[in-house]
């Protein structure tokens, strides 16, 4: 997929666990894990907004476009 999810990088920089972030943004740890591992096919803007607010970052810090070869 051309969209790379760097959520794990931002979580590590902010020193927050998956369970803690999931609780803070009111999403199940399983759904957050799907997003974190790059297996998600979509993300709601409200979820992206909550993640960015909690991690104090921009959407581009989490989502990255890479051209496929």
From TrEMBL:
Matches recorded under Gene3D superfamilies: lambda repressor-like DNA-binding domains
GO molecular function: DNA binding
Superkingdom as given in the UniProt entry: Bacteria
Residue runs in coiled coils: none
Stored Pfam families: HTH_26
Annotated ranges, domain HTH cro/C1-type: 7-62
CDD domains assigned: HTH_XRE (cd00093)
Stated name of the protein: Transcriptional regulator
Organism of derivation: Parabacteroides chinchillae
């Amino acid at each position: 997929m051309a969209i790379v999810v760097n959520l794990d990088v931002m979580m590590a920089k902010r020193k927050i666990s998956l369970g803690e972030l999931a609780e803070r943004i009111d999403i199940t740890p399983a759904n957050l894990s799907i997003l974190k591992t790059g297996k998600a096919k979509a993300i709601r803007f409200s979820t992206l907004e909550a993640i960015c607010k909690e991690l104090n970052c921009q959407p581009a810090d989490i989502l990255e476009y890479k051209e496929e070869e």
